[in-house]
Amino acid sequence: METYLSTKRRLVNQALNKYLLPSFTFPETIHQAIRYSVLNGGKRLRAILALMTGELFGVTNNKVMPFACALEFIHAYSLVHDDLPAMDNDDIRRGKPTCHKVFGEPIAILSGDALLTLSFQIVAEKIQHKKIIPELISELARAAGSVGMIGGQVLDIENENSPNPAPAGHKKRVLEQMHLRKTAAMITVSARGAALISNARQKQLSAITSYARNLGLSFQIVDDILDISSSKNNLGKTPGKDVKMNKLTYPALIGLERANKKAKRLVEKAKKALDIFGKKAHLLKQLADYLLIRKR
Amino acid sequence: METYLSTKRRLVNQALNKYLLPSFTFPETIHQAIRYSVLNGGKRLRAILALMTGELFGVTNNKVMPFACALEFIHAYSLVHDDLPAMDNDDIRRGKPTCHKVFGEPIAILSGDALLTLSFQIVAEKIQHKKIIPELISELARAAGSVGMIGGQVLDIENENSPNPAPAGHKKRVLEQMHLRKTAAMITVSARGAALISNARQKQLSAITSYARNLGLSFQIVDDILDISSSKNNLGKTPGKDVKMNKLTYPALIGLERANKKAKRLVEKAKKALDIFGKKAHLLKQLADYLLIRKR
Questions:
Q1: In angstroms, what separates the C-alpha of B55 from chain A's closest C-alpha?
Q2: Looking at the predicted structure, is the pLDDT value of residue A159 above 90?
Q3: What is the percent of chain B with per-residue pLDDT over 70, rounded to a whole number?
Q4: Taking CB atoms and an 8 Å cutoff, what residues of chain A touch B145?
Q5: CA-based nearest residue to A94, from A33, A20, A49, A43
Q6: CATH number of the domain residue A90 falls in
Q7: CA A177, CA A214: separation in Å to the nearest integer?
Q8: How many domains is chain A partitioned into structurally?
Q9: How does residue A150 score in pLDDT terms, banded at 50, 70 and 90?
Q10: What pTM was estimated for this model as a whole?
Q11: Rounded to the nearest 5°, which phi and psi values hold at A93?
């Protein structure tokens, strides 16, 4: 899996590099900041999931790539805005100073805006199968928007440092909604978008959706576990921030061990959803297992 | 013209209201902040220009409206992010407290992000003529992106409080580039997008482009003049900010009188570009004259 992922990651990085304007494009500062924020050694999970979903349907990476890059642009923009002093106030991301630390807050805000804008431009201009573009952009926007990823961010902010001793049942419901929106929505659209490009049938689309949704939920739990148990070097960002900011997470709410078990159960559910594809889904199942034991 | 504009403004406001999610949508805060930032009595110039361009080609307002609303969502997002403490740090907009003053900085950042996302969603989902959608989104994204409006914002930031005594010729070039990107790009795409929806021929598209580009340049000069000469009540935002922040503007660079003359010359150029349409372009010409003598 490691070798497979790093091969795909290289492909994705090449494409990202191609779709980004050169750093000498006028005005230079913002194009430097955009490249700095995207080309910084991310995992490229969303893009790779899209490519792998395409492969499940026998569709070449090339056909899915513009959409895969759009996902990474949106992911990168969300990290740049998340790291801002007014938000999570993070100095380090993927082992390097965050965008606003290097380029200042105004350029960081504008770089995020530009990356979000670029993601839709790339889909509109580079997806070969023109007829699918409106639906792709609609799904992408809904996953990234105020009832998707951005809505999840709002819940995240509203539930940190929350002093009210709400009943655990209520907190669990909020937490699941937060994870569904903050993380699972974009991971789900990564797979769904690729399935749409691949002309998947309705039943296949549902299976892929269920897989990616559970994968996304599990991914966020593992993220929160790593924030507690990993070191700064492994993680590439400041660990222990969730506890410090009193964030609502599964490890905080039900403890590390039970959070771990929950992540495992979700991965099992994810894999089961792929059974209709038979052996062809082998790699996607392996990906789910791999993300469970990742160290960053 | 006043009556015509206020009729159209009412139409646009109704459509904006329809396309925005209700304020009780979960999570409520962001949907309240989004509605607050959009439905606050803006001029709706970009939307109305799109509708008027459609009318020039005999196309109903309904067909252009989703695109017109997308323009206003982008405009509203740009104002919310502009007003942030890290950017222009403005407390008042359209006579009311700015978004971050009411909802806090994190929600203001996320509301802007959500509005930008929504603008592409609306075009992708609501434009009836599906085949034109990829081109519309491409043009919209380019006008709003890092070489368009966002690029103009970067130039604006980089040239405020600039202590270096650059030669006037250089400053003029930067200033024109800034206005072309910061304001004219979005005003141009407002008219071009509507012309594309109306299946305009190449020659017509060029004429409309030239009209809107010059209109946009003139509009920004008048904006900068009003910042100096208007009162807070008239303007609905804090006047005199450009001088205080030592912004690069035409009034600052060549004086009020010459700036006024330049705005007038640009409006004449804009109107002349419409001559190929004959009498049908009457209203668009009137709009150009009207924007020159506006008080806010």
A1: 25
A2: no
A3: 96
A4: 114, 117-118, 121
A5: A43
A6: 1.10.600.10
A7: 13
A8: 1
A9: very high
A10: 0.96
A11: -145, 130
